[in-house]
Write a structure and sequence with these properties.
- The complex is a heterotetramer, with two copies of chain A (about 350 residues) and two copies of chain B (about 325 residues).
- Helix content of chain A is about 40%, strand content about 10%.
- Chain A is an alpha/beta fold and about 350 residues long.
- Chain A has a single domain, classed as Rossmann fold.
- A six-stranded parallel sheet of chain A has the order 1-7-8-4-3-2, with helices on both faces.
- In chain A, helix 6 links the parallel strand 3 (about 155-160) and strand 4.
- In chain A, helix 1 packs across helix 2 and helix 2 packs parallel to helix 7 (about 230-245).
- Chain A starts with a strand and ends in a 16-residue tail after the last helix.
- In chain A, about 60% of the residues are buried.
- Helix content of chain B is about 35%, strand content about 20%.
- Chain B is of the alpha/beta class.
- Chain B has two domains: about 5-180, Thiamin diphosphate (ThDP)-binding fold, Pyr/PP domains (Rossmann fold, 3-Layer(aba) Sandwich), CATH 3.40.50.970; about 195-325, Rossmann fold (3-Layer(aba) Sandwich), CATH 3.40.50.920.
- In chain B, strand 10, helix 9 (about 210-225) and strand 11 form a beta-alpha-beta unit.
- The chains are: A alpha/beta (about 350), B alpha/beta (about 325).
- At the B-D interface, helix 4, helix 6 and helix 11 of B face helix 4, helix 6 and helix 11 of D.
- The structure holds thiamine diphosphate (TPP) (2 copies) and magnesium ion (2 copies).
- One thiamine diphosphate sits at the interface of chains C and B.
Chain lengths: ~350, ~325, ~350, ~325
């Protein structure tokens, strides 16, 4: 059932035949720019010794933003993995909240400074708390959808993970469960072809993660994940299926990891200069900018203004978070059990 | 009030809670039409269609799905068919369920119950006889309950279902039909975290739970005929442990024996003995003794080997005598 | 990549176009009869209160015997699950050894009476020790094959499991590993459509386990597992692939479970009379007997003699095992660690 | 002989054993080209092509494959990238590796090493800081080793690789580069199962392993300046535990403190304290004390919280003073 969407040559333009309103496209673009700007700032702070750990969404923005725009922000659940900065921004997390987590501040809404950065959570926004062991969120997404089915609601559970994570048993068990019960879940695999240093061919003997959908009797869709509109369209269809009671969809978003795995990694040890250069040609932001300009959906001035506003937002988020207090030592003992 | 056994008590608790709260549901292997391999959920599928769900054969998936469901306003009860098969779900229990409240700084709660039939003496061999409490009673964020009587089983299970934290509910298989008792008709609860003195005594304190509680009672009755007065404390909850009750008992009797069926070394008895040794040191007239299963991987199938493994009333009585004579 | 073999109507005849020698076919038949006779005797002993636990191969004999005949008994490894009586008999375990395990005797070669019956093991025969948690043997098979690859040998690792077990993470992780490294493994799923009481449709949303091969980039073959010759052929091809370095094969053997799950189960609680009656039409032994007679490969006299010899073998195995001593209590402490 | 750190000691042990025996191989995530996320296996892929293998991201599969390989005449070393991620492999370790020799009545052996970098104080947050020894030191059939010095790390790892039993080899991440020491050039071994008195003393005995051993040494040096003589015993192996050495030390000093970084309740310190309390009762002049990590799910990321969690030389010294003054 694997359906490969037409991958437009050189990663420009968009494969989607869409009727998305120009204002919405600009919003998408804005979210992508914001994610990138925040991400880049985090690296700067890391290099300046102010943030001990960064893990990036760079290269995944289109996949995340396109998908999140297809969700209902008033009721759907997201279970994004650590690269999901683009996801959580669209779902309503603010730059300041992201920065509070980076600096492990007491007011960090995700964990109060307990977890590493990029372990997003907000009950209010139905962004579900994530751990570090990869793949555990996949059965959680199925369970959220099962509860939804039991309770008679029509919210969808959307979860993301890397292609390396598809090797975990929990990937298999979670998707199989959702498939058996035709649950409203969207499984988004953001395939950047590496799990830290391990390339896809050492991870699986298939070319596309979408081929795995057939093993569960659900649609497996492979999408150019650097094409935000194609991601939006694919996710919209999956959401429709889910809400109609037709069950889960596995979406493979083919993306690029524009950075090292994390601030603790040095990817030049295992990726050649040539490969890195080729990969940079697939920057989803440059691609969407080109598309918007070519279709006269945004002007140079508008883009410049947008970037300026975002830069200011990132500045003030950083300031606010840097000034915010760290957790008090005694709070170590809080919340072991709910009362 | 008629006597019922532990299995019936557990079924009643689930049934009544499902009737009380629509958010309660059961997920596990063979829990539906089959009513569970021990028949604990028998009849519930008919009464609560759609809320008693046969799961694929995948324990990590079962617990993982329940973890998710617990975050979307339901109250899941996961059944692990035999406690031995909880091992594939270790990650979901320890790293996920137990840590969700803490890691979200109190934002999310995890009202999840995991039922697991454990323990031996039922000819279950290496993989249908294990005791698993030590692995989980070590985990902050989890609660671990191990009742020994129908009254406690019913009251504790209801408390567990209502509790906003993940509770591992351990049911000793051999007690399922063996242990009977009177259970009131009203909708009572037994609070999690409280031990219960099942037999008051003067000369020494014995701490146990599950099947071993009954073996300790039997041994205590025997010792009484020999003039030794044994206090038997049913721990009932292993995490959080009722240290107050444990220390109070030892401070009175000055001698302590901890009994469990699980392998001795690294078993939960070590924690109890260490606590007593540290906090009742001045009151002790004898070393705190432990009686546990031997340090072999698990209980074998052949009867002579199974018997050699299981702590018995006779072995417990012998330990009591040694302690009393110290 | 799922290839469904032609299922001959009514489960008679054979789908295999084969050049197996008549003597070999009679050997296969003999192994199937022996497995069945032992299995039936175990139930009698159970009903007589002499054996506390029985779990059956009845209905799986053709799948097991056909496959095991395609293996090299001098070097290949088998990791059969608890229904694998037919497998281990072909690989060289004797009826007496099987009965010693049933009675938990000290001389039981599988475990010295430590494990439940049907947890087969013999290092000498390269039958690998099995546990009860299902599916754990699947990564073991991959690891045995990995070691073979490292050591430069050409033995094959063959493992079996039920269709319910394909829901476990270890199924996924084990097959994926073998596929990535193109390891010489044969994964035989004996699909009897039930996991205790849970029917296949509550276990997976696909019609055939063979469809799962595609998720790993390996061949998935669905075979009528009541057709011993078809099973032999399918396994022979998989063995060839494996030895040639072309990697693993997933074989789904469609079988019937002619008994309750085990002696502790009562399947009339979840299978209708009608279903049970229909299933009994697919008895692999009756089917092969018909085939042999129709093709004049065995005479009535030969079959009767064969059955008599087997009955005597089962009698003497039972006698020997019943008289054998139980383990001594002190041996509880043996073999916790290897010296 | 130059000083090397623990990381280098471990790399040398693997390297020398791979050179010595062709059956040794390494399987784990990123162990190949990347040389492991801590660079422990750096350079080994070039030296031993085909025997340093990048695994798919699946810990149960990694351990499971190694269990299989160990039964086909190879000597696998599985690397778990962080000890926290061993949880998905719990079933394969506890139910399989640890039980294969026993369940086959001694027929099969399981010469498997599982290396796992554990422990905190490195800003690793909840899931890159955990101590996991209590879960595994409880399991008969497993051996659990936790060295604290380069010499011990190298000698114990070589013993582990040669051992016919499954060995969980715990490497404290914070000691990797922090702790240096002299390691001889010859092909020596340190036997599994023997504790080592790292500092003899008179007034009280302290038992520790891994990073805590060094913190205890530091605290003991401080206490020496205050006139208290502390004996520091490096347990080195947690299973099988060197009870002889533990009891001998306590019988001399009459006071015992057990220190670990893992959560206190149900931690392995309970076992040690219980053993001492039972078998050295008559020699004790004070309660056996324990100092462990607090009973919260794991070590948080924020520095003030991490510091509040970690046992430190100062906290240990305070406990020593309390015990000395008892
Ligand atoms: C269970 C588990 N094992 C190992 C790790 C260490 N680890 C963190 S990220 C990662 C690679 C993940 O790769 P992939 O799923 O492809 O996601 P990507 O980072 O490429 O987006 C690994 C091995 C982990 N977090 N969890
Ligand atoms: C991990 C685990 N969970 C649960 C069980 C209990 N159990 C034993 S057999 C079985 C059903 C297996 O079904 P399947 O794999 O289809 O094999 P079959 O018995 O039908 O041949 C179950 C649930 C187990 N043995 N292991
Ligand atoms: Mg990746
Ligand atoms: Mg089946």
């Amino acid at each position: 059932m694997a359906v490969s969407m037409k991958n437009t040559s050189q990663g420009v333009g968009s494969a989607a035949n869409t009727d998305i309103a120009p204002a919405v496209m600009r919003d998408m673009f804005r979210s992508m720019l914001l994610a990138r700007a925040l991400d880049e700032r985090m690296w700067l702070l890391n290099r300046a010794g102010k943030a001990p750990f960064v893990i990036s969404c760079q290269g995944h923005e289109a996949a995340q933003v396109g998908a999140a725009f297809a969700l209902d922000h008033t009721k759907d659940f997201t279970l994004p993995y650590y690269r999901g900065l683009g996801t959580v921004l669209v779902m309503g997390m603010t730059p300041a909240e992201v920065m509070l987590a980076l600096f492990a501040r007491a007011a960090d809404p995700s964990s109060g400074g307990r977890q590493m950065p990029a372990h997003y959570s907000s009950r209010r926004l139905r962004i579900v708390t994530q751990s570090s062991p990869v793949g555990t969120q996949i059965p959680h997404a199925a369970g959220i959808a099962l509860a939804e089915q039991i309770r008679g609601g029509d919210a969808v559970a959307w979860t993301s993970f890397g292609e390396g994570t598809t090797s975990q048993g929990d990937f298999h068990e979670g998707i199989n469960f959702a498939a058996v019960h035709q649950l409203p879940v969207i499984f988004q695999c953001e395939n950047n072809e590496y799990a830290i240093s391990v390339p896809q061919k050492m991870q699986m003997a298939v070319k596309s993660v979408a081929e795995r959908g057939a093993a569960y009797g659900i649609p497996g869709v492979s999408v150019d994940g650097t094409d935000v509109l194609a991601m939006y369209e694919a996710t919209r269809r999956a959401v429709e299926r889910a809400r109609a009671g037709d069950g889960p969809t596995l979406i493979e978003a083919r993306v690029v990891r524009l950075t090292a795995h994390s601030s603790d990694d040095n990817d030049r040890a295992y990726r050649s200069q040539q490969e890195l250069r080729a990969m940079r040609q697939h920057d989803p932001i440059a691609r969407f900018a080109t598309y918007l300009h070519e279709h006269d959906l945004i002007s140079e001035d508008e883009e410049r203004d947008m970037r300026q506003v975002i830069a200011a937002e990132v500045d003030s988020a950083t300031d606010l978070a840097e000034r915010a207090p760290l957790p008090e030592p005694e709070t170590l003992y809080d919340h072991v059990y709910a009362p | 009030m008629p006597e019922i056994n532990i299995l019936e008590a557990i079924r009643q608790a689930i049934d009544e809670m499902m009737a009380l709260d629509e958010r309660v549901f059961v997920l596990g292997e063979d829990v539906g039409v089959r009513g569970g391999v021990f028949r604990v959920t028998e009849g519930l599928l008919d009464k609560y269609p759609g809320r008693v769900i046969d799961a694929p054969l995948a324990e990590s998936g079962i617990v993982g799905a329940c973890v998710g469901a617990a975050m979307n306003d339901t109250l899941p009860i996961a059944e692990i068919q035999f406690a031995d098969f909880i091992a594939p779900a270790f990650n979901q229990i320890v790293q996920e369920a137990a840590r969700i409240h803490y890691r979200s700084n109190g934002d999310w709660t995890m009202p999840l119950v995991i039922r697991a039939p454990y323990g031996g003496g039922i000819h279950g061999a290496l993989y249908h006889s294990q005791s698993i409490e030590a692995f989980f009673a070590h985990v902050p964020g989890l609660k671990v309950v191990a009742p020994a009587t129908p009254y406690d089983a019913k009251g504790l299970l209801k408390s567990a279902i209502e509790n906003p934290n993940p509770v591992l509910f351990l049911e000793h298989k051999k007690t399922y039909r063996l242990i009977k008792g009177v259970v009131p008709d009203d909708d009572y609860r037994v609070p999690i975290g409280e031990a219960d003195v099942k037999r008051p005594g003067e000369d020494l304190s014995v701490f146990a739970y599950g099947l071993m509680l009954h073996y300790c009672m039997e041994a205590a009755r025997l010792l009484a005929t020999e003039g030794v007065s044994v206090e038997v404390v049913d721990l009932r909850t292993l995490r959080p442990l009722d240290t107050g009750a444990i220390l109070a008992s030892v401070r009175r009797t000055s001698k302590a024996l901890v009994v469990h069926e699980d392998n001795l070394t690294g078993g939960f008895g070590g924690e109890i003995a260490a606590l007593i040794g540290e906090h009742a040191f001045e009151h002790l007239d004898a070393p705190v003794m432990r009686l546990g299963g031997p340090d072999v991987p698990a209980m074998p199938f052949a009867k002579p080997l199974e018997d050699a493994f299981m702590p018995s009333p006779a072995k417990i009585a012998a330990a009591m005598r040694r302690l009393a004579a110290y």
